[in-house]
Structures are given as structure tokens and as C-alpha cells.
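Dear colleague,

Thank you for sharing your sequence with our group. We've completed the structure prediction you requested, and as agreed, I am returning the results in plain text so they can be pasted directly into your records. Please verify that the sequence below matches your submission; if there's any discrepancy, let me know and we will rerun it promptly.
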Amino acid sequence: EWRAVEDKIDLYGMWMTRLAGGATYISDKEKAQLIDDMVGYIQTDLLCYFSEDQDLNLLQHEQWEPVLKWAEKRYEITLVRTAGLMPVVQPENAAHAMQQLLQSLDAYSLLAASRLVAMFGSILLFAACYEGKVSYKNAIAYSMLDETYQAKKWGVDAEAVRTQKAKKHEMRELAKYLELIAK
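Please find the predicted C-alpha cells below.
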């Protein structure tokens, strides 16, 4: 991104620089807070909340269930699934498994992961990407499955398209950053 700079430095558009710079100053206390915040996503993880709409539910099962089964096997956990929005309680060992994964990350990965988990609405999707089970490209699509389905069913809204495009761009930049620092 620095090679692309011509006359003016635009830090807003320089994702890698911003992420690396921000991670440099993360304290141990802030790191612990990021981990706690991300672990909390296990209780409301997108992949465990299926739609009551039969067609969307089928699509979700096709795309999400392999990730859930992988996570259950990989982390030796059982995940509670539901249809609808009523909250479920995930077992404590699921939170513990996610905490162990996140504690293994350095500050550079952790900062990007925290934003990506929030954007995915899923710590399980991040874990699957981080461990090489799911590509970031597919994880982005899985996390936006509901929006994509609704647009096909009801039509496209110009503002929603702009928002979705910006969200996808940010997720792709975060994924690229995580892939680069993993090498």
C-alpha cells in the first residue's frame, strides 16, 4: 500500500498500516479485553441461529453445518443450534476453546480478528478461517447469506448495496492482512 502512495498519504485507505500501527500499542489489559469480547460471540454466534424461513434455513444448513460440525470435532465441543432469534446457551467448554485459540494470537492478528469476528457475527467462522478450514472469501459469503438471500427474494435496495459493498471491502482487507501476517 505504501508503493501506491503518490502525492498524499491517505491513512483511511491504508488498512494494513492502520492495523499494524494500532496493534503496536495494545496493552496486555486491552488484549485481554479483546479476547473476552470475542469469546462472548460464542453465545450469539451467527452460525448457530438458523432462519425460520424454510428456503433460507436450507441454504444456511448447506453452508453453515459443515463449519459447525468441523468446530465440534476440532474443539471437542457440542454447539446448540436454534431456528429463530430466541437465545440459546452454549456450553462453557465452547467458550474455553475459543479463548485458548485467541490467546495464541499475537496483538497484530488479534486486532484484525476482533474486527472480523464482529463483522462476521461469528467467532466460529473466524476460527475456521484461521485454521484453514474455510477460506476468508467463503466466510464472508456465509456471514452475508441472509442479506444475499433477502436481496434475491425481495429485490435490491441501493443503500443496502452500498453498505454491503463497504462491509465486504473491509472484510476482504482484514482477511488479506491476516493472511499476510500469517506467512
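Summary note from our side: The chain has nine helices and two strands.

Kind regards,
the structure core
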